[in-house]
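Ops channel
N.P.: pipeline sanity check, posting one input/output pair.
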């Protein structure tokens, strides 16, 4: 029986829920293109979505951090709304190619939501890395205990020294080398291949927009961040003392606008009850981001 009403529903959102929703969305909206960007440590497909064939390319991603799975749910709810509007003849993404990685860290998200099942190949190590606790709800890293948003070659050595983590754990271990993890390599390879005009990585929490990196960001970045802040009610923040993130590397590598968007407020994982408010604030923010990406005086490819 065909679904009616909204496909993407607010619920704990892991790779199984993402796969179910993507299958249903493709049936309803055949224009939604779905392909693998790579695979996780455990072999889970890293879903890559494309909407539109415009000349300017925008990238959005979510759930670099496992306990921030609510970002994947928010991005998928917004994606369904966008597809609905396009089908009705209203297209906020007109002139754009929109590329989405809705769940960068599916292994970690599944772990944070469901814990370690019996027979898991990393089960013993995960319990050791989690200090013997079977509660993985606060886990940020991938399944090998590496923080995927500390994996990028943008002053990675400095970030590793700053973190002071010598081995795998729930958070803040940058790995043995930049891009050692397949999920981070996939995000970097996609970005190199498509050479995006603008990127935004969705995280939680703090209701802040980070837009700069070591003075390497383009001149338009501050104004863009302030416009995103006015649209959403979030704060545009000039961040210091942080390296090796996806946004940092993108700015360093391409000298184009990149943003980290910290959704919601509280302690991770944010409660599902915040989802409606998160989407309500994210919606105008992303629509403004799409407008900025289309502007003729925006960053040149």
């Amino acid at each position: 029986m065909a679904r009616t009403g909204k496909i993407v529903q607010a619920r704990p959102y892991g790779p199984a829920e993402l796969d179910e929703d993507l299958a249903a969305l493709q049936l309803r909206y055949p224009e939604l293109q779905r392909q693998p960007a790579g695979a996780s440590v455990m072999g889970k497909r890293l879903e890559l979505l494309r909407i539109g064939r415009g000349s300017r390319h925008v990238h959005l991603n979510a759930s670099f951090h496992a306990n921030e799975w609510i970002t994947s749910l928010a991005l998928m709810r917004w994606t369904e709304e966008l597809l609905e509007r396009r089908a009705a003849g209203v297209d906020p993404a007109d002139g754009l190619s929109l590329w989405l990685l809705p769940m960068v860290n599916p292994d970690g998200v599944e772990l944070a939501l469901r814990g370690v099942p019996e027979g898991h190949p990393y089960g013993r190590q995960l319990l050791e890395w989690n200090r013997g606790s079977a509660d993985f709800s606060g886990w940020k890293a991938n399944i090998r205990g590496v923080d995927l948003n500390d994996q990028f070659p943008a002053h990675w050595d400095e970030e590793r020294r700053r973190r002071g983590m010598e081995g795998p754990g729930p958070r803040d271990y940058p790995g043995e080398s930049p891009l050692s993890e397949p999920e981070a390599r996939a995000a970097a390879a996609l970005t190199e291949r498509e050479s995006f005009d603008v990127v935004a990585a969705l995280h939680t929490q703090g209701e802040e927009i980070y837009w700069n990196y070591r003075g390497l960001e383009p001149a338009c970045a501050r104004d863009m961040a302030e416009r995103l802040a006015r649209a959403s009610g979030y704060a545009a923040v000039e961040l210091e003392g942080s390296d090796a993130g996806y946004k940092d590397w993108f700015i360093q590598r391409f000298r184009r606008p990149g943003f980290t968007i910290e959704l919601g407020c509280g302690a991770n994982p944010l409660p599902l009850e915040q989802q409606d408010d998160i989407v309500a604030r994210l919606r105008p923010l992303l629509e403004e981001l799409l407008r900025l990406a289309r502007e003729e005086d925006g960053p040149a490819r």
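N.P.: looks fine end to end. The longest strand covers residues 33-39.
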